[in-house]
User: Fold this.
Amino acid sequence: MTHPALIERITRSLAYMLRHQPEKFDVEVDAYGWADLEEVIRALNERLGEGVIEDDVLEAVESGDRVRYEVDAGRIRALYGHSIEIEPGDAAKPPEHLYLAVPARDVERAKRFGLRGGRRRFVHLALSEEDACEAGRRIAREYTVLRILALEAWEEGVNFYDRKSLFLAEEVPTHLLEVGETYHDGDPQVPGRGEDDRRREPRRGRPAYEERGERFRGGERHEEEEEEEDAGGEDEPRDLGDSEEHADDEENEELEVEAHEEGEEGEEGD
Assistant:
């Protein structure tokens, strides 16, 4: 049995490698996100300085509370969460409803513009309201669960992609969203989400969220470069619904990347 600390290091490295920057590991992924398993194991050994074997990787892949990776015929891929360009494959008929948690203050933007991927290409949609709430607690102190009329959207031509633990979609129009309950049980440690979060008054003619240079991405808000914001125009919709964040928070995806980058800096400094 692989040591839990090594399992954690493997899963973090897999996330960074297969979702974000495979080139930093000298690993090639194909158009659908598949990488050669032997090459991945080699890269893990080099990066972690451990004698990682195939059984360790398989145990790491199976260790999570939901399916994040797929191994088949000597290949491995991340099922979702990519910031690199990946083809989703064949579309799949979704269930009647899917769900997404958003910070409560972003509900009006979702109602106005609908949902679409941001830094990640696809909207990540939970299979249940409970899964959406799980993600919501990690993204905001106050969050609202949106219900997506997924089957109706499918019949209108919106493509969905089955990723076992969730579904992906490129966008969801506003008329196929229903605003559900708002919850107040989010993580009080989430920065910029509670009583201490003071929003500045917008400049004349600019909505508050554009003044701040923020873009909602499915449970995440990212500061954008000022010139990028100015180029967008007042009426251009911001990207909404990159939550896969839905219910996974991707093993705290951003923390994984940061931890890996910090590790690299430490290695360079040695």
Notes: Residues 192-239, 243-270 have pLDDT under 50 and may be disordered.
